[in-house]
């Protein structure tokens, strides 16, 4: 293997395959950051299979804002199979102008300028839901932050946001659980039932959401499903299948982001014991603290594929049309050319334009809600848990190198 450069417009072969394989290996899950530092030595690296890995902040940001970068699987020269055959794609897998139309329609009901009070209007519900979950932890000598808190919280919040009836909510918790388990499916070690349950859960979720949307027609209400089903804005009205796809995006992508953010956040705070005490004394610290968590321990480490619409030049490297591009977001977040002392957790960090929610036209549209949910969750956990301490460090991690977070985070509290 050897390093490569582009010389006089020609792209030669590459040499970071070994490092990438080690990042994907489970043994690196607890601390992939030294391997990201190796990757950054070659900011744009062509792999043996013809794909490209981009690992530095400037290059990631440039290409995420490049109109020649696609999010549509069909633009790959060797298309990948869709996870949900026959289902309408969400706008996260679309390009302009269709992406822009659907995102505008969703954002009319999800934030400024048309719905500026959405997140602040959820403040009371978020606080009450967090408080109720923490109430259930009182008196327990040992808790699992994932199972007991971080996993159930976002499903409850997103169901409330969508306007899912309370009696249907337990089914949504089960479906999201089965879908999340199937994302990590390994055919070599896992029973096929794990995959089958995920496939069935996706079908059941689509069907239930479709029925709920159908019931909302002609019945305007506060939930997002009702608003989308009855809105005739400048772009017209979303088709029912598009509403279902948008709701699924919120449930699945939103859930995964928040579970990992809260769990990684709690782990980081317990590794830096002076910070929880500061947070108790200075509640406003939680705002920059969560931004630093999004940089230091983000929920999404890798965007595993984006196609090139046409030839794209990044850092003097020509990436041919149809190539698969892998973006190492977490590596960009630790790039010393962009962030001072990047391997240090610093909640007072200034100019923290991290890649925790991506960049460009696909910047996470649920970001404001994820931020506030995490801010309230970490503030209340720190305030109300009784002398929490880690049972195991590092904790066991999920198999995925893409959506990286502990599968369990066991904490002891009290005198036990």
TrEMBL record:
It comes from Streptomyces yanii. Belongs to the cytochrome P450 family. The keyword RNA-binding does not apply. Residues 1-10 have a biased composition (Basic and acidic residues). This is Cytochrome P450. PANTHER family: CYTOCHROME P450 YJIB-RELATED (PTHR46696:SF1), P450, PUTATIVE (EUROFUNG)-RELATED (PTHR46696). Pfam families: p450 (PF00067). The lineage of its organism: Bacteria, Bacillati, Actinomycetota, Actinomycetes, Kitasatosporales. Keywords: Heme, Iron, Metal-binding, Monooxygenase, Oxidoreductase. Residues 1-20 are annotated as: Disordered. The keyword Oxidoreductase applies. InterPro entries: Cyt_P450, Cyt_P450_B, Cyt_P450_CS, Cyt_P450_sf.
């Amino acid at each position: 293997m050897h390093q490569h450069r582009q010389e006089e417009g020609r792209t030669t072969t590459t040499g970071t395959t070994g490092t990438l394989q080690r990042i994907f290996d489970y043994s690196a899950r607890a601390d992939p950051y030294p391997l990201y530092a190796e990757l950054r030595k070659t900011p744009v690296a062509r792999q043996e299979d013809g794909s490209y890995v981009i690992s530095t902040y400037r290059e990631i940001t440039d290409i995420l804002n490049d109109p020649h970068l696609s999010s549509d699987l069909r633009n790959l020269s060797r298309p990948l199979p869709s996870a949900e055959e026959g289902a309408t794609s969400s706008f996260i897998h679309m390009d302009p102008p269709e992406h822009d139309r659907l995102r505008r329609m969703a954002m009319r009901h999800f934030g400024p300028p048309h719905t500026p009070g959405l997140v602040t209007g959820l403040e009371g519900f978020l606080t009450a839901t967090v408080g109720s979950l923490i109430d259930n932890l009182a008196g327990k000598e040992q808790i699992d932050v994932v199972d007991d808190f971080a996993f159930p919280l976002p499903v409850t919040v997103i169901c409330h946001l969508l306007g899912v009836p309370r009696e249907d909510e337990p089914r949504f918790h089960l479906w999201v659980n089965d879908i999340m388990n199937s994302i990590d499916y390994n055919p070599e070690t896992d029973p096929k039932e794990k995959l089958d349950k995920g496939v069935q859960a996706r079908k059941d979720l689509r069907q239930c959401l479709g029925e709920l949307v159908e019931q909302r027609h002609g019945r305007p209400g506060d939930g997002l499903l009702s608003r989308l089903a009855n809105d005739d804005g400048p772009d017209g009205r979303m088709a029912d299948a598009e509403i279902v796809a948008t709701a699924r995006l919120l449930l699945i992508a939103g859930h995964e982001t928040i579970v990992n953010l809260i769990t990684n956040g709690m782990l980081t705070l317990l590794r830096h014991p002076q910070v929880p005490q500061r947070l108790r004394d200075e509640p406003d610290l939680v705002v920059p603290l969560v931004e630093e968590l999004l940089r230091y321990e983000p929920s999404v480490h890798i965007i595993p594929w984006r196609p090139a619409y046409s030839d794209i030049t990044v850092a003097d490297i020509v990436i041919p049309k149809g190539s698969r591009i892998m973006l190492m977001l977490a590596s960009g977040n630790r790039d010393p050319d962009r962030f001072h002392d990047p391997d240090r957790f610093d909640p007072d960090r200034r100019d923290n334009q991290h890649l925790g929610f991506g960049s460009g036209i696909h910047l996470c549209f649920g970001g404001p809600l994820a931020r506030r949910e995490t801010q309230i969750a970490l503030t209340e956990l720190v305030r109300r848990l009784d002398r929490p301490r880690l049972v195991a460090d590092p904790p066991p991690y999920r198999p995925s190198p893409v959506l990286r977070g502990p599968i369990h985070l066991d904490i002891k509290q009290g005198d036990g």
